[in-house]
Design a protein that fits this description.
The protein is mostly helical. It has a single domain, classed as Hypothetical protein af1432. The protein is about 65% helix and about 0% strand. Helix 12 packs antiparallel against helix 13. About 40% of the residues are buried.
Amino acid sequence: MPTTAPVPREKLINQAGEIKVIPTLNAIVDRVFKVLGNNNSSFNDLSDVVKYDQAISSKIISIANSAYYSRGVEIFNLQRAMLTIGFEEIRGIVTCLLLMENIMKKLRLREEDLLALWKHSIGVACAARILSERMLVEDPQKMFTASLLHDIGKIVFYLAVPDYGELLREAKTADTDIVVLERDRFGVDHQEIGYIIAVKWKFPHDFAQIIHHHHGGGKGDGQDVLFRIVNIADRFASNDAIPQSTEVFILEKERNAIAFEVEKIMNFLQLV
């Protein structure tokens, strides 16, 4: 029998509306999200923002000097560090850092919950980016960022439902979509809660729509390709059964590359 204690729908919605981590941060964070949400953003656009943030700048320099990128010469300059890593990877790293440092750690999720949520989110993001690159259907970094954010609504469930991890395991064991169990127990799912957060924090419209519909229910704005990539990447990262398709064939072929990317980012974030 399920042990997850019932939590009223209203409590979850209210908690989503009360999370104030992003709005109360320095304006730099708002500017970074605007840059990340703009497909036309350039290296200089991002550099001009992050150079004013000590925490982000120091982390980028640290990553540039890591074994993944270092060529034996120490790097102390932010722009050189960004050039060494590459613009697309920098965009992904900055997004991870903002969410990791400014949202999840400040909300003080339990370590095991934080690890589970991040490992899945990063796995989906890497799979979606690689799938987008191979199919030439969408901006790969946009897919990475949107996919990284797709499960942000689960933060509220982790905070409000002490044994939410048990519900996730129950869904996996029963081969049931987690959103079905969430709606049954709480009258709301993490897609809807995530959408409330996305609107409150003024995420780009496309990101908010993906968060709201990534399990494949109603699709927003007819962006079928966008939603299909995130949905398939999400199921792939969860090891759910997916009907054979071109996308699944590509992801299976790239499984090792995706695993390497996940490991690399988890190392950057010091989560392993």
